[in-house]
Amino acid sequence: MPLTDQEADGRSELREALDRLPVEPKVLLIGYACNSEAGLLRVCWGEAALRGNGDLEWQHVEELPTPGDAAQGRRGVAA
Questions:
Q1: In the chain, at which end, N or C, are there fewer CB atoms within 10 A of the end residue's CB?
Q2: Is residue 44 a contact partner of residue 61, using CB atoms and an 8 Å limit?
Q3: Given this model, what pLDDT does residue 65 score?
Q4: What is the DSSP annotation of the chain?
C-alpha cells in the first residue's frame, strides 16, 4: 500500500531530523523509584554519552514531577 502525501512528508521530515543529529550516539536514561503501597516516588531523566572505554559521561540529569508533587503543589527541579 503506497504512502499518502502526508505520510511521505512526515518520513521526509524525520529523515532530515535524523541527518541533523550528531554522529556520536547519545542515550536518554529514565530512572524511577516506586513501590506497591506508595506508587511512583521519584522520576528523573538524563542524557549520557557512551565513551570509547565503555563509561557513560553524564550530560544532564533532571527531576521530573510525580503525581504526588502536583497534589502537594511541588514541581520537579534540576538535580
A1: N
A2: yes
A3: 86
A4: -PPPHHHHHHHHHHHHHHHHS-SS-EEEEEEEEEETTTEEEEEEEEEEEE-TTS-EEEEEEEEE--HHHHHTT----B-
- How many CA atoms are closer than 13 Å to the CA of 9, on its beta-carbon side? 3
Joined together, the cell numbers standing for residue 33 give: 523509584
Question: What does the block give as the cell for 37?
Answer: 503501597
CA distance linking residue 47 with residue 18, whole number of Å: 17
Q: Residue 72: pLDDT band by 50, 70, 90 thresholds? A: low
Q: Which residues contact 43 (CB under 8 A, 6 or more apart)?
A: 30, 31, 32, 33, 63, 64, 65, 66, 76
pTM greater than the 0.70 cutoff: no
